[in-house]
Automatic annotation (TrEMBL):
InterPro entries (alphabetical): ADH-like_C, ADH-like_N, ER, GroES-like_sf, NAD(P)-bd_dom_sf, QOR-like, Quin_OxRdtase/zeta-crystal_CS
CDD domains assigned to the protein according to its UniProt record, in alphabetical order: QOR2 (cd05286)
Entry keywords, A to Z: NADP, Oxidoreductase
Taxonomy, superkingdom: Bacteria
Domain (Enoyl reductase (ER)): residue spans on this chain: 11-323
UniProt entry tagged with the keyword Membrane: no
Name under which the protein is recorded: Quinone oxidoreductase
Keyword Magnesium: no
Matching Pfam families: ADH_N, ADH_zinc_N
């Protein structure tokens, strides 16, 4: 029997249950993967709370890495012993093993450890499409504002932004998080709890504002993010840790300087096979070559899923968090 975390109703972390489950054999186009590590992502809390509705009961988690231990027919070249990682549907990554469709998998280069992959596949692909796809006008020398700069995606995005020649202003809550963000590429730090973010952005940019804001917070930071943009800048709504973004007032977008707002989803940037390969190859190359370092600062057991979600929502984590299952 495998171990899995499931939920039967939406709500707080306490709705998560650890259960023994029968996995079964893979069918056509499927493989069975034994996980070595599972990614803990803020998006997981959206499913748990019902913000992202799914049929119940259901599994939890969208990201993991491990080794294929059984294959069904027509598995597109995947074989027993392959090291793989994945992010996306179906839910159920919080488990020791599971059956997965091969269309969700990425073959893992030899130079990347399984724990590193579980800590960076979703976060790294997110950073990749944010920086490479969401603002076609952004170029080397531009300044960006990155909220939650000491988080898992933030640390990857900061490093990647520096590879692209961007100047990075990051927001954090504490001195410890500021030190971590600076070590991973942030040029300037704003303490969002005690500083006026748009006012500081204007000071740091000579009154102009930034080309792009990557906002993972949502409701609480939306207005400040808009005010931080330069004329015709782009606000990328990457996450909603504080709640959903408010309805868009088209006139306000014009008044703010003819700015743009986009609320992208990773699934729409890896649905096309060529684009999926482009982003994943770029990510894996940077990680394997040491250009982007993955900080795994929290490790949990699956039995600790409730506490892991509490820590995540309380802002107690930095960098990436994983469940160790091997």
């Amino acid at each position: 029997m495998a171990k899995a975390v499931r939920f039967y109703e939406t709500g707080g972390p306490e709705v998560l249950r650890v259960e023994d489950v029968a996995v079964g054999d893979p069918g056509a186009g499927e493989v069975r993967v034994r996980h070595a590590a599972v990614g803990l992502n803020f998006a997981d809390t959206y499913f748990r709370q019902g913000y992202y509705p799914v049929p119940l009961p259901n599994g939890m988690g969208v990201e993991a890495a491990g080794v294929i231990e059984a294959v069904g027919p027509d598995t597109n070249g995947y074989k027993v012993g392959d090291r793989v990682t994945y992010t996306g549907s179906p839910l159920g990554a919080y488990s020791t093993e599971r059956v997965m469709p091969t269309g969700s998998l990425f073959k893992l280069p030899d130079g990347i450890e399984l724990e590193t992959a579980a800590a960076s596949t979703m976060r790294g692909l997110s950073a990749a499409y944010w920086l490479l796809k969401t603002n076609p006008w952004m170029k080397a020398g531009d300044t960006i504002l990155l909220h939650a700069a000491a988080g898992g995606v933030g640390l990857i995005a900061s490093q990647w932004a520096k590879l692209l020649g961007l100047r990075v202003i990051g927001t954090v809550s504490t001195e410890a998080k500021a030190e971590l963000a600076r070590a991973h590429g942030c040029d300037e730090i704003i303490y969002y709890r005690r500083e006026d973010v748009p006012a500081r952005v204007k000071e740091l940019t000579g009154g102009e504002g930034v080309t792009t804001v990557f906002d993972t917070v949502g409701k609480d930071t939306f207005v400040g993010s808009l005010k931080s943009l330069k004329r015709r800048g782009v606000l990328v709504g990457c996450g909603t840790a504080s709640g959903p973004f408010p309805p868009i007032d088209a006139l306000q977008m014009a008044i703010q300087g003819s700015v743009y707002f986009t609320r992208p989803a990773l699934a729409d940037y890896i649905a096309n096979p060529a684009e999926r390969a482009e982003l994943s190859n770029a990510l894996f190359d940077h990680v394997a070559n040491g250009h982007i370092k993955i900080e795994i600062n929290q490790r949990y057991e699956l039995d600790d899923a409730v506490q892991a979600h509490r820590d995540l929502e309380a802002g107690k984590t930095t960098g990436s968090s994983i469940f160790v299952t091997a």
